[in-house]
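Good morning,

Both structures are done.
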Amino acid sequence: MARFEEYLPVATAIAAKSMNDAFNNVVLKYGLTRSQCIALYYIDLDGSTNQKDLAKKMNIRESTMTGLLERMERDGLIVRKPDKEDMRRKTISLTNKGEDKFSEISQVTKEFVKEATNKISDRDIEIYTKVLDQLVEYTLDWQERKIKSFE
């Protein structure tokens, strides 16, 4: 049996990949990728946003975000307009088609979460969420300390 310190990162990666793949395979039938769904979520949540902030929220590189936004704009899901305060930046917002797709995919997302968690107690979900938040926080702290140790 693997030791916990070896198992935890592997188990987390396997669980995340399985969930991401399952969700992606379904939303592809709706003409979207998982990344596009996440982008739609954050754009809808904020009303509008910019590329840098969106990339940070999605935890992806800005160069990756550029390609994602170009495809979404080509597909009529978003519109990018010059920012009124900084003309070098673009403000990203949903089009009517993007709002419709987001509404449609929100239902699929709710179904996905319901199916994934229907046999898990609310208390266990609460604990899981708390543990995930702590893992992310502590991992980022460790990363920062480790990188600083090389300076």
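Second structure follows.
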Amino acid sequence: MKKLFSLSVLMLALVLMISGCDNEENPIVPPTPTPADPLVGSWVSEGSDVAPGLAAVSKTKKIYATFNTNKTYKVVATDSTGAEVTFEGTWSYTDNTGTTIKTIVLNQTVPTSLTSGGIFQVGSNGFMTYEVLQTSPAIPGFTVANAAEGFGSTKYNSLPLGATWIQKYVPATPATEPLVGVWLSDGANVAPGLKSVSKTKKIDATFNTNGTYKVVSTDSSNVTVTFEGTFSTQAVANTSIRNITLNQTVPSTLTSTGIYRVNTSGMWYEVIQTTPAITGFTAPTAALGFGSTKYNTVSLGATWIQKYVKN
């Protein structure tokens, strides 16, 4: 019995030793993670990002598009009257050698059945350029954009239509705060109200990842004033417009609130001092959009809309 027990222990030790050798010689290699699909997610197109053709023909002012991992999509287009149209269906795309522009096919099922085709590209900045056209039933005279000729290659009677049908999008839920960076506003981009009241000719604004900001305003006499403080932002559902609160500490203590939007061409920004409040004024809201700063309930339009380009 003792010999049998000893033999069993010896065999067990041998099995464990062999197993250990096998693990060392044939390590388990973890699977390579599948890269995230660049198209999958929710995207917003507003303002200057809306294709000129859509703005002219359909009076489109905003598009909210969602592409799902199960290859379905939902696109909600809003026109200048606030009316919405929802498009749904399935999507697929193929890569093209030598370019990051991809060819896309959309098989729409809602509100009608049709097929569209075209191209799209998600850049290193996370923004998307997108150009598609209905292909079945075909629209007489039109040919769809292709990767070889690039964006702007949608044609009518063989004539390229350029930017007419180029749609641009930003992520609906950006991975990083879109306001962070160094921005410049000068010339026609300076808000008319600032030009009139403060003789402002240029604004250099820096928003930092730690939630601090520094704004240097230069007037027509080249006199500068520096404003500093902290900021916080808040996303607003189904729009690229975001709320912002600025707690200024330099040169005086006050709070300003308003809205801003970063798209592929730059930033629109509209804020007003709210604490201490300025009698008669109310701050703009995302629901009412840019130009909704009011004085005695009257909207002031472009008066306090500040535009920036990123440096």
